[in-house]
Write a structure and sequence with these properties.
This protein is an alpha/beta fold. The protein has a single domain (4-137, 196-236), classed as P-loop containing nucleotide triphosphate hydrolases (Rossmann fold), CATH 3.40.50.300. It is 45% helix and 13% strand. It is built from 8 helices and 7 strands, in the order βαβαααβαβαββαβα. The protein has helices spanning 33-44, 51-61, 64-74, 81-91, 110-121, 138-146, 186-209, 222-237, and strands at 21-26, 48-50, 100-104, 130-135, 148-150, 157-159, 213-217. Strands 2-3-1-4-7 form a 5-stranded parallel β-sheet, with helices on both faces. A two-stranded antiparallel ribbon has the order 5-6. A hairpin with a 6-residue loop joins β5 and β6 (157-159). The chain is globular. Bound molecules: adenosine monophosphate.
Length: 238
């Protein structure tokens, strides 16, 4: 278990940090950032800001950004910093982000991190960003990613290795044919891992060097991981 993690109990007690402030969830593709962000949203009542979701929304709507991002995302590469920063800037002006937000998948490069740090520093009274990285071993991630399927109707997520539907290929709730994200193939996974090691690992080191970084073990039940993140954030906010 990573050393910086405090003893997390299973099951979550609502913990009231009055102002959680900006929180960054980091980790390789498939570690469960999105799942954990949703747990923390329930707990703290602050929004999840997922750049992957925002970009997929743009692709679905066919915006100019979506047209550019579609090809890049399909190859597992990173969308240019300037485009992603601009998209995040717009999202962070929305009033629901006033007491904090959970960043999921952003910043993913050092220039994005420095852009965000600069933006927060220019807003007096804003708490500094704290970063928590979720750690999961490579082969486990490969299974999680390439086995992932979701229902296009109710968005329930299955996994053919760990959580298969009762009827192969179909949603238990809606009966709809399950779909696989275009970037969840093994080839694209490897490219996303390469991008992560090359571009995002320096972001972890950046926040570590600022003393605003913790790691939690992501190979555990969802509630235990969430409790670990809460404990880590409370420690970093002291
Ligand atoms: P995710 O859902 O977070 O795994 O993101 C899916 C894809 O969206 C990534 O593989 C990238 O192509 C793109 N993406 C998401 N967030 C960023 C970001 N912060 N910077 C650049 N590209 C991103």
């Amino acid at each position: 278990m990573p050393s910086s993690e405090t003893s997390a109990k299973s099951g979550l007690e609502p913990k009231l940090l009055t102002v959680p402030g900006p929180i960054l969830l980091l980790g390789a593709p498939g570690v469960g950032k999105g799942t954990q962000a949703k747990e923390l949203v329930k707990l703290w009542g602050i929004p999840q800001v997922s750049t992957g979701d925002l970009l997929r929304g743009n692709v679905a709507k066919g915006t100019e950004l979506g047209k550019v991002a579609k090809e890049i995302m399909g190859r597992g590469e990173l969308v240019p910093d300037s485009l992603v920063n601009e998209m995040v800037a717009v999202r962070l002006t929305e009033p629901d982000t006033a007491s904090g937000y959970i960043l999921d998948g952003f910043p993913r490069t050092l220039p994005q991190a420095k852009w965000l740090d600069g933006r927060l520093a220019a807003q007096p009274g804003t708490l500094p960003l704290v970063a928590v990285s979720i750690q999961v071993e490579y082969n486990q991630l490969l299974c999680r990613i390439t086995g992932r399927r979701n229902c296009p109707v109710c968005q329930t997520i299955y996994n053919v290795c760990f959580k298969p539907p009762q009827r192969d290929g179909f949603c238990d709730i809606e009966g709809a044919a399950l779909v696989q994200r275009a970037d969840d193939t093994e080839k694209v996974f490897e490219e996303r891992m390469r991008a992560y090691e090359a571009m995002t690992a320096p972001v972890l080191e950046h926040y570590r060097s600022l003393g605003r970084f913790a790691e939690v073990d992501g190979d555990r039940p969802i509630n235990d991981i969430a409790a670990g993140i809460v404990a880590a954030v409370e420690q970093l906010r002291k």
